[in-house]
Amino acid sequence: VSQVPVAEGKSVQQTVELLARRLEALGADKQGTFGVDCETYHTAGTIGTQGQTGKLMYVMHNSEYPLSCFALFENGPCLVADANFDTLMVKLKGFFQNAKANKIESRGTRYQYCDFLVKLGTVTMGPSARGISVEVEYCPCVIANDCWNLLMEFMQSFMGSHTPGIPSVFGTKHDSVYSPGDTMVQYMELFNKIRKQQQVPVAGIR
């Protein structure tokens, strides 16, 4: 999962269309849509202590796994629960409070190209588009490090110089099996990066 910068002189939507055209020129077929969303919760007990917020937890959903809900801490574990976890979070509001203005999501089109699955998404916060996400999966392989060079070569074919480096989550995996939680960690890191890029102007507007 990586972020693609907006092309010079173009909007987010135009850049997404440009990437989509490149994929279709390679021979990729549209396979429906996808969505990943993320809500931020902070630990309730420490709110207001000298303006500091407590530890943040991110509750995430991915349309590829409709029956699951993912709860992640930064630099911490990734809990995979069933979809009723959202209801549980409401009951835990004495411990975790939802930072309502912070919901961020990526939605877009899924493409299949031979054994590759590509998800091209527009990242939005509230009504405005904030960035572009690209998720690439090589479906036959479950050991991430075994297919990284192949993934790189494929990504270069339509992302050019914006091909990402090896994700940090791979560093801890080595030869172990890649899981859906690893994808969600990458989305969490991407969303947090986009949030930080936006913070300065947003504060100025308020």
TrEMBL record:
Q: According to its UniProt record, where is this protein mainly located?
A: nucleus
Q: Which GO terms describe its biological process?
A: regulation of transcription by RNA polymerase II
- Domain of life according to the entry: Eukaryota
- Mind telling me which Pfam families this protein's record contains? Med20
| Heme found in the keyword field | no
Keywords from the named record: Activator, Nucleus, Transcription, Transcription regulation
Its name, as the record gives it, is: Mediator of RNA polymerase II transcription subunit 20
**Annotated source species:** Scytalopus superciliaris
